[in-house]
């Protein structure tokens, strides 16, 4: 079977075989995608309490100990956290980590021992933050189907084919937004990457919401969107790939309230939304285009993460939209290998704006900011 010609998140079709060259150039061969024939049922409803809500002391003494350095990536979002090893955190430290991510949205932890601790330790760490996610179609680590693997080995034809129809490889999305209880905290772990390029960009969806006029905010507050995995599943089926879950269509609020910060966040992406409930097609088209354009072009509420060796990035999928940057293609030799694992922790059902809350960007219970 041919390799997928699409660069799409949540899709990652099987290789016919890994070429010798790929196997040789891969630093972490145990993390090359595998396609085990396992069937996953739709995740049934579950109770979720955000670990950040257990934090009492917002100076975060169990996370930000002496010797820890916090450097903000941008004033409004993003932080590099040095001097913390994730695998050393106790439960109080993990709760505070959740609080820290909720407020900074995306954090980078360079040189993490957890990168070399193996899939069971990595999955175990993320299990603390929410339920495991099993992707309907993506390749995973053998025996650890909660992993989603991002792996490009230098096949420039794949990217070239994609660019025959598209003008950029950038694909802004929220992860797995079609699930009834989509991911909150998400881990990306860098196994191997190019020296330069292959960054990941993030936009704060609460800041983006705040920039809109109160009149538009209050209109959006009442809207709902249909998120679906069926387009992706059909694409994979048509290409002869392995599907491991039924498709799902879920109606979510277009504006969701963050359970920790209380902020209202735009919940829209270009990958999985098929319909805005109650709007006519042309109305929907204009509205979705406007909102996506607003999110994509608002560089004053974005952060760009540069990867360094053995980095782990943790981000909040509820208050961000993100994209990989596939800019590391060498015209002569193809892309440099880039190999990342993703683990999603499924969280609350997106909280709609309550009618009594006016469009002032907040829904009540904020906890301050770090
Ligand atoms: O490769 C990256 O930087 C991000 C990948 C991603 O967003 C995903 O797999 O969902
Ligand atoms: Fe993603």
Q: What is the CATH class?
A: Alpha Beta
Largest sheet: 8 strands, mixed
Query: Topology as H/E string?
Result: HEEHEHEEHEEHHEHEEEEHEEEEEEE
How many strands? 19
Please name the CATH topology.
Double-stranded beta-helix
- Approximately what portion of the residues adopt beta-strand conformation? 15-25%
Distance between the termini: 49 Å
- Looking at CATH, the homologous superfamily is Clavaminate synthase-like
| Mass-distribution shape | globular
Which molecules other than protein and nucleic acid are bound?
2-oxoglutaric acid, fe (ii) ion
Mean pLDDT: 89
* Class from secondary-structure proportions: alpha+beta
Work out the helicity level: 10-25%
Gyration radius, to the nearest Å? 20 Å
Structural features, described:
The chain has 370 residues and is of the alpha+beta class. It has one domain: Double-stranded beta-helix. Helix content is 21%, strand content 22%. Strands 1, 2, 3, 4, 5, 6, 14 and 18 form an eight-stranded mixed sheet that branches. A three-stranded antiparallel sheet has the order 13-7-15. Strands 9-8-12 form a three-stranded antiparallel sheet. Strand 16 and strand 17 form a beta hairpin. It is globular. The N terminus and C terminus are likely disordered. 2-oxoglutaric acid binds next to strand 5, strand 15 and strand 18.
């Amino acid at each position: 079977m041919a390799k997928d010609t699409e660069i799409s998140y949540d899709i990652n079709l099987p290789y016919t075989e890994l070429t010798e060259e790929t196997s040789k150039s891969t630093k972490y061969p145990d993390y090359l995608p595998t396609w085990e024939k396992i069937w996953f049922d739709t995740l049934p409803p579950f109770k979720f309490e955000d670990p950040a809500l257990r934090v009492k002391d917002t100076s975060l003494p169990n996370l930000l100990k002496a010797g820890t350095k916090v450097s903000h990536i941008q004033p409004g979002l993003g932080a590099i956290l040095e001097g913390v090893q994730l695998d050393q955190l106790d439960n109080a430290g993990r709760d505070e980590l959740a609080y820290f991510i909720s407020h900074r949205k995306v954090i980078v932890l360079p040189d993490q021992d957890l990168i070399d601790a193996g899939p069971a330790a990595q999955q175990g760490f993320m299990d603390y933050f929410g339920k495991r996610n099993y992707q309907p179609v993506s390749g995973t680590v053998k025996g650890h189907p909660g992993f989603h693997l991002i792996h490009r080995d230098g096949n420039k034809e794949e990217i070239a084919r994609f660019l025959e129809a598209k003008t950029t490889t950038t694909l802004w999305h929220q992860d797995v937004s079609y699930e009834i209880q989509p991911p909150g905290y998400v881990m990306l772990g860098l196994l191997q990457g190019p020296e330069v390029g292959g960054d990941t960009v993030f936009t704060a969806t609460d800041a983006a919401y705040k920039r809109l006029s109160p009149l538009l905010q209050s209109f959006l507050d009442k809207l709902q969107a249909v998120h679906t995995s069926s387009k992706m599943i059909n694409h994979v089926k048509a290409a002869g790939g392995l599907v491991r879950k039924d498709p799902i269509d879920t109606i979510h609020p277009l504006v969701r309230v963050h359970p920790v910060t209380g902020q209202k966040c735009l919940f829209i992406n270009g990958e999985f939304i098929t319909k805005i409930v109650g709007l006519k097609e042309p109305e929907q088209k204009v509205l979705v285009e406007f909102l996506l354009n607003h999110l994509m072009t608002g560089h004053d509420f974005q952060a760009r993460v540069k990867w360094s060796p053995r980095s782990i990035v943790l981000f909040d999928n509820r208050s961000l939209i993100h994209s990989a940057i596939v800019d590391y293609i060498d015209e002569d030799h193809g892309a440099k290998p880039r190999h990342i694992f993703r683990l999603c922790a499924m969280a609350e059902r997106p909280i709609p704006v309550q009618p009594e809350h006016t469009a002032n960007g907040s829904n009540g219970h904020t906890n301050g900011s770090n």
